[in-house]
Amino acid sequence: MTNEFPNQIPAEMREFAGRSVAQARKAFEGFIGAVQKTAGDMDVATNSAHSGVKDAGAKAVAFAEKNVTSAFDLAEKLVQAKDVQEVLRLQAEYLQQQMAAVQEQARELGDAVQKAAGVKK
Q1: 13, 39, 80, 81: which is deepest, by most CB within 10 A?
Q2: pLDDT of 3-22, one tens digit each?
Q3: Dihedral angle of Cα 46, 29, 98, 79, to the nearest 10 degrees
Q4: Residue 28 located in a structural domain
């Protein structure tokens, strides 16, 4: 038995992984739909709450949804990868994109929180 990692990813493994990713994505979409509905219901019930706090919360949920969707997109690409080099390239691209996205999201969320707290820039 050799300790070498196979250079090619078997098609059967990619197909199985692809189905798993699709099922997980569908479950997440159901979950995020329920979160959004609950948030909408809470907005109606708590219309006396400050709009800034609701905006910050909505941003946080939207950012979480975007980040998870990006991870699912990566997973779909990874299961289609033909070899380890492609997997590594896709992962590196994803990490660069996510670092930029997280920085922007942190800035936007910070601005929303400051606005909700009444802090002026």
Answers
A1: 81
A2: 555 667 777 777 878 888 88
A3: 170
A4: yes
User: Quick one: which of 61, 56, 53, 67 has its CA closest to 103?
Assistant: 67
pLDDT (0 to 100) of residue 106: 93
Domain that holds residue 110: 11-117
| 35-36-41-44 Cα dihedral, nearest 10 degrees | 140
In what helix (H) or strand (E) does residue 21 lie, and over which residues does it extend?
helix 11-45
Rounded to 5°, the CA angle 9-79-23 comes to 135
Cβ proximity of 36 and 52 under 8 Å: no
Query: Token match 């907005």: residue?
Result: 43
Could you tell me if 74 and 24 are in contact, meaning their C-beta atoms sit under 8 angstroms apart?
Answer: no
Taken in order 66, 68, 70, 72, is the CA torsion positive or negative?
negative
Query: The tokens of 54 are what?
Result: 């609701």
